[in-house]
## 1
Amino acid sequence: MMNQRPPRFNAHLLQGQSKIPIEAQYASRFSLLIRFFNGFPSDQAAEFNKIVFQQNGDKIEMGPCEYIVEPHDQHFQGRLVFNQAVYDLNSLFFKDKLEKLQGEFSNLPLILAHKSKIKAAFKEFTANLTYDLTIYKNIFDSLDARFADEPAPIKHKVQTAIIETEGRKFMRFLDQKLDEFENLIINYSRKDHERHGFYLRKQLWHFLMCAPFMARTNLKPRGYSGDSVMMKMLYDNRYEGDSTFARLMHKHPNEHPAAQAVRNRRQLISEMLGHLKSGRPPSSGNKLRVLSVACGPAFELQDVLTSAEDCAKFHFTLLDQDKSALSEAASLLARLEKKYGAEVEVDLLNESVRTMLTTPKLDTMWGKFDYIYSMGLFDYLTPPVAKAVLTKLFQILRPGGEMVIGNFHISNPSRFYMEYWLDWVLYYRTEQEFIDLLKNVTSAESRVLFEDTGSQMFLHVRNTER
Amino acid sequence: MKKSIEFNIKPDWDEIEKVRNESAEFLQSHDLSDDTIHSLSMIISELIENGIKYGDFKMVADKVVVVINLERNTVTIEVFNPVDESALKHLSRLDRTIQWIRGYQDPFEAYINRIKEVSQKPLQDNESGIGLVRIAYEGNALLDFFVGDNNLLNVSVVSNLDGDDRNPS
Ligand SMILES: C[S@@+](CC[C@H](N)C(=O)[O-])C[C@H]1O[C@@H](n2cnc3c(N)ncnc32)[C@H](O)[C@@H]1O
């Protein structure tokens, strides 16, 4: 954004009845540089009712405002700042939105009132939890301060010692609190869950924000949960964060069953692809054609491609809605190609499954596949969409081909931890609901498998056509 | 008793009221509470309105199709209409909006954010999407969509029925 030339334009200032022509230029988020045209005294401060100008065909009026003398450069004479409603000039000039800084307060009554529907027991639980977390944080922070000046390797050793001792005890404390919390909300309706989750996150906000994983799942900088950065954190399962407390808060959800299930499913896919490459020969003497739908950064490929021969066996088609995820997958493949001195055939498709079906004749465009898998996608698709996508995927599975689709099971023990703390909501299914997604497709032979934690299911489908 | 009902309507604003009334009768016959029927009707109107607005109805046979399906714990409402290539940009935005709304555990959060944005008046009206947020927040329903064969757009909501969504028997 800041690479663009700052917008410069003509405007006028209103002061009582007079209209003073000026030249103005965007200077900072909350100020403009200005120059008076008609000899208006530029060496003393002045106040104006408003500034008026045209932008993209709209008449913009903002004020009241104040002139501050600032012999800035050869051209401009000073700055204009707003002294009541404070307008965000970044929004105005770069997003075409007229926003006041105070706009943040516009929903205040609604948000404050939201707490009136929170149950007393939940408020008490949250207050106690906040107290306990504050105490823990204070202690961990004060320990951090005491070893802050140590040389890096020593600091690391000391922090590890603290994590392994009191840190692990703190993690058990969190487990206990989560048990209490689950008992409290077990009979809540969906609406109750939503409201109480909102309340909990507001109360715990600062604790959540210090943990990189929790901050990201809550803030969703790419607009959705489960982006490639979150996935990497899940796969790495390390202590990450700026302080000992932050590292513990980051690690805790990464050790929960749902996170383990994500790591398990990666292994499962790697094993299945490994099996495929050593098993039956590919359909037409060519490469094994594999499609990963919602591939993300496709980390599993580094488990599958472990030699030049492996690289030669596959043709991958990787589909994701997110360009950044696809380019991460591409760089991973480039690294593997370099490592093994071999080329990997790959097509990258930047599409959403919701709109991919508009691609005419998907099978002639993309070809048919020996193996299709999709992990971490169906958890976001409601039944009408899941059915349509699955049916379409089945149509591009060659006879004898197999498809494996992941979906968290309704009994996911991390469900409420994810929903309330991480603001991460999935569409859960039972085995039957999962199987039923393909019930109208006669040549599909389906069964449901689970990984070790039991929280994630896989719909395994074979195309029985010959 | 029939568990589902289907309407085939012309892309005409006057048809909305008719579908609203008939679907309300259908939902009443299944003992859904007045509040629930009220919010489902809001959803139905909103979806049909969008269907008419963004649909591509070149042929006389091009209709808006509404299917309401009632199961023990869920109601699913699906609205189908044809779209042309020009709708694709709108659909990518719809995709992002839906993921954004559903990214919040509490749709209230999407609601207050969107209200804030609307109150800030974007200079170019880039479709507030407030209707979709209301579906999620007031209608307590999960929105989703896909484009199927023949460029038929399907926008759907799935709404869970809790105990108080039905009249006491
Ligand atoms: C939870 S991640 C899973 C990534 C990868 N499959 C894995 O298991 O590591 C979800 C991925 O789905 C992608 N995704 C979500 N909705 C999608 C859609 N409608 N179409 C295509 N990709 C989608 C996201 O961009 C993200 O990369």
## 2
Amino acid sequence: MINKLVIENLKHRPARTLLSVLAIGVEVTLVLTLVGLSHGMLDDFEKRSRGVGADVIIRPPGSSVFSMSTAPMSDKLVPFFASQPNVAQAIGVITHTLPGLFGSVTGIDLASFNTMSGGFRFLEGGPFRKDDDVIVDEYYARQGKHQVGKWIELANRKWQICGIVESGKMSRLFVQLPVLQDLSGNKGKLSQIYLRVNGRANVDPLVKQLRETPSLKDYQIYSLEEFTSLISINNVPWLTPFIRVIVGIAVIVGFIVVFLSMYTAVLERTREIGILKSLGASPALIVNLLARETTLLAILGSGAGIGFSYGTRWLIQTLVPASLQQAIVYEWWPIAAGIAVAGALVGALYPGFKAARQDAIQALAYE
Amino acid sequence: MSASPIIRIRDLRKTYRTGDVEVHALRGVDLDIPRGEFVAIVGPSGSGKSTLFHILGGLTGPTAGTIHIDGKDLLGLTDAQRTEMRKSTVGFVFQKYNLLPTLTAEGNIEIARYISGRNGGWDSQFRQILDLLGISGRLHHKPRAMSGGEQQRVAIARALVNHPAILLADEPTGNLDTENSNAVLGILRDLNHRAGQTILMITHNPEAAAFADRVIRMRDGRIEA
Ligand SMILES: Nc1ncnc2c1ncn2[C@@H]1O[C@H](COP(=O)(O)OP(=O)(O)OP(=O)(O)O)[C@@H](O)[C@H]1O
Ligand SMILES: [Mg+2]
């Protein structure tokens, strides 16, 4: 019965109900999109890291998972690693960080990179033919509406697209290794070395052995499993506080909307609340009614927000597939809904208190 | 048992204080109402009639005096007990119907039942009351789809659904035309005669007062002899 009254009250003011649900929906979408972006981008990074086909990754001293310090390793290390027992192949790449959202361009030796990774799948065009050729992945091409033969500018230089490849192998932009080494003033230097190992069982002993080699003391040597396990939200230093700030803002917005919505509802229902009290309703029952209405608004809003997050994902996939990836993170649905309900209930606290204290007689006396 | 009055009021006083201003709404009311009586209360505006009802219904507390309803001392009750008493002992009917606009007639009656903590279907006694009120066919309408007379009859049904010992009706016909007034008054009298319902009714209309067994006059917060 009490639920019927709550639902009828919501139906009675459809515009208010709709706006409240929308506002809470935006709150929930904000949280889900942000979390989805974090997960999506990390998942994509992990997928591309695996796409290289390596079993061991070696990075220079002082680098971290997400920051690639530019090329301080000598390329003389490659033959050294290749000569280690059980190493089937060793390749080196150089990474040049780009301003903006596209991350980086990677310098590779196409033939050995293809051997390790299983080979690019060209959707259009083909391998490098001249020094200023660049291979781009499908997302980069789609986002910039690029075609083979087109000239693009990267790192203060013009490059011509020679091929468009399927995404999923380390980077979105590839040029030839010596060209990028020259361009960035890192002749003979590498930023990452990848090893392929004969037999899975030999990976961990090899990593252990390399780590114990005195001359490699400060190098960062990971098996691919270790490396990908480091790809998590907790390892991106600014991400967790950033998520907290955005969630905080979302909660405040939700709180204000619900506060206003319930406050006006209580003012508008002065008479109704008086009637309920004259029928013997206790203050607790009045608060209970408002709490149910608020919770229902927040749950409807959460549903809307989950729907909207599919919309933002579609927008991102359509407009900026190379820069951003948004995952749908189901574990965060109840969390985001919980945040919305809690914020809304706090917003309903003062209006509920006001309603509970309201004088029944005066409410009924208003003509 | 029937000898003891259902309502016994002694030296009841109520003073409203708004800032520095004191309004003495009740200045010493003594009143006994026997069980099963239909009483009309008349008197000029501001004489304290509604205030008396609100105290009887537990919506506000008195400043001084004693009230016994059904032998229970109203002032000796805790807040929770008073709320409890209001649910089961008193039913209110107001001049302005005061139905919840978002609920149907049936919903309005049901919510009163819900608040009193009862559930399950309506008993046969209440179904007879509905027949008497003549609103059985209007139960699925919302208040704005009903005439004033119909709304007031729904309000009476709502006041009676928990079988209260006392029905308090504050100018129940104040907003109704003569025809609807007479219908509602006839219903109140029938309820009183057939079901023995104790009824207190405030009215400004002498014709309405004539439906009651007894007429009590109030002036300046007291009962006139
Ligand atoms: N909540 C209140 N605060 C202050 N004064 C009040 C309040 N309620 C009633 N009064 C005052 O108490 C007096 C008695 O009011 P009450 O409503 O009981 O009169 P009444 O006999 O019902 O009048 P009417 O016939 O106009 O309904 C009036 O002077 C009124 O202004
Ligand atoms: Mg009055």
## 3
Amino acid sequence: MKVKHIMVIDDSNTIRMSVQHTLKELGYPITPAENGFDGLNKIQDICSKGEDVAMCIVDVNMPEMDGISFVKEFRKTDQFTPVIILTTESGSAKIEEGKNAGASGWLVKPFEPSALKTTVQRLIR
Amino acid sequence: MLRKENSKYGVPMYMLHPGDYYVTDQKCLMGSIAGITAVVCLYDPGRRIGGMGHFIIPGTQGTEDILFDDISKEGILKIEYIMGEIVKLGGDRKDLKAKLFGAGSYPGTDNNPLTLSRSNITFLHDYFRNEGIPIIKESLGGRHRRKVLFSPVDGKVFMKLLENNMDASKFIELEKQYVDQVFRSGDTYGDVIMF
Ligand SMILES: [Mg+2]
């Protein structure tokens, strides 16, 4: 069976670590990235090893490439892998932008660990 | 937050109350009074962007992994708000520097002041170490309130220790209201929206 990674893309190391901490019992390898651009590069590395991405958890406000731009880029080559936005942004215009870019869901920080875990379990296959 | 257009310093002045945060790339001063709460000043000196946040984490016991503890979420969230605005103005977390004030310990709160102070100081140190953001200056703990003035575009800070709570009676009341609210809102989380 193919190894499937959960991407955790956030410019905060603290958030990356706490998401990792929350999801570790699900048993998926977790690949952290610091911004959208770093995330796309790491996804490319994963695919070139013959492995796969099970899901992406992505922040919005990041330097170099923000989360919405990441989703747009990612969706050019992958229409099916779930992408959850995890952000402090809660404005309806931003959420609409995320939806239109092709995100699967929107979680507002602070996240409840059990809610994140349930959402991931529900979307992942 | 109070905004004074014509402060005596010749630039706009923003007075942050406990629970507030503010970020800008405009020349101004931000001020606050930190009691048992913490005032965090973050700035990107190269890009001349900075922000201040005023918060407390409701930690009544020392925990080992304080960053993963639920009590830390108020602190992480407030700093995330500041970082988010800094990023929107073109800043980068990697270039930020921090100056930290407050987390004083003195009687008068309902909770054990020493453990509360210690939890907040531990949180701040762990958080900024974890983010790789250098702490350029700090004045934390002890039985003081601190009046802080911060110039966000260059990171300059003027701090005064307040003895006997002078000049701070309004802040003491606001701080009490804010701290009570944080302690009560333990299980408040953000929304989950599925598309
Ligand atoms: Mg961010």
